[in-house]
Write a structure and sequence with these properties.
261 residues; alpha/beta; Alpha/beta knot; Helicase, Ruva Protein, domain 3; 2 domains; 7-stranded parallel beta sheet; 7 strands; 49% helix; elongated
Length: 261
């Protein structure tokens, strides 16, 4: 299970923090590190801070955008104490392990960390199914990036170090959550239908996108549910084309008559 947990660092500004995070991961048995637009990487300082976890760095995958980094993940968790107008479900690291145990087939799992100064952006948080926070002293809650990675990785190890990967035969593929790539495609399909049917208010486009994202994230759509929803949306498209076709033909005929002599 631990090899299915991906630590993703977004826009890290200091290479030493990448190395320290890699070291924290290795101590706890995690090995999957992804980096989104790090300011400095590869870096000698990162390698030095990683100590004997240089293999984590050498195997780290670097991405230019968050969607590519999350595309294969079935559960996305943002590490942040920040709230927003449409908050994700807030959980502690220990509560998160319970959630993962309930649906262990929803792998890989991404735990997303933001930049050192400001954490995750609102757009990044909108991609998360859950928001994990470390219940620190409210009078002084500051944690550096590597410490946060260490604490969450510790809880993952505590919960899953002895847990073996489920046999393939026991996993019902239809009940697996969709990947982030499938999620993005489903959301885009919904938005396309909303545009075509005139449902979208151009003055509240961003708010609608965020609320739609929130709705679908809460649902944790499975593969079978995704096929149902995509089929329904496709049926709306086909129906709309059939209804609009006669009108389009009539308009085309009237347009041609303008030029008939």
């Amino acid at each position: 299970m631990l090899d299915q947990i991906q630590i993703i660092l977004s826009h890290t500004t200091h290479p030493g923090n990448i190395g320290a995070a890699a070291r924290a991961m290795k101590v706890m048995g995690l090995s999957q590190l992804k980096l989104i637009n790090p300011k400095f990487f590869p870096s000698a300082e990162a390698t030095e801070r990683a100590s004997k976890a240089a293999d984590i760095l050498s195997n780290a995958k670097v991405y230019t955008d968050i969607n590519s980094a999350l595309s294969e993940c079935r559960l996305v968790v943002g590490a942040s104490v920040r709230t927003r107008s449409l908050p994700s479900r807030l959980v502690t690291p220990r509560e998160l392990t319970t959630i993962i145990k309930q649906k262990p087939e929803n792998q890989p799992i991404a735990i997303l960390f933001g930049t050192e100064n400001s954490g995750l952006t609102n757009d990044e948080l909108h991609l998360c199914h859950y928001q994990v926070y470390i219940p620190t002293n409210p009078e002084y809650s500051s944690l550096n990036l590597a410490s946060a990675v260490q604490l969450i990785s510790y809880e993952m190890r505590l919960a899953f170090a002895e847990m073996q990967q489920l046999p393939e035969a026991k996993v019902n593929a239809n009940e697996q959550s969709i990947t982030q790539q499938q999620f993005d495609s489903l959301q885009q399909h919904f938005y396309q239908i909303m545009l075509e049917t005139g449902y979208v208010n151009p003055h509240h486009v961003k708010q609608l996108e965020n609320r739609l994202n929130r709705l679908l994230s809460k649902a944790q759509v499975t593969q079978s549910e995704n096929r149902l929803l995509r089929g329904f949306l496709s049926a709306i498209e086909k129906r709309r084309r059939r209804v609009s076709q006669p009108q389009e033909n009539e308009e085309a005929m009237l347009e041609r008559e303008k030029y008939d002599v």
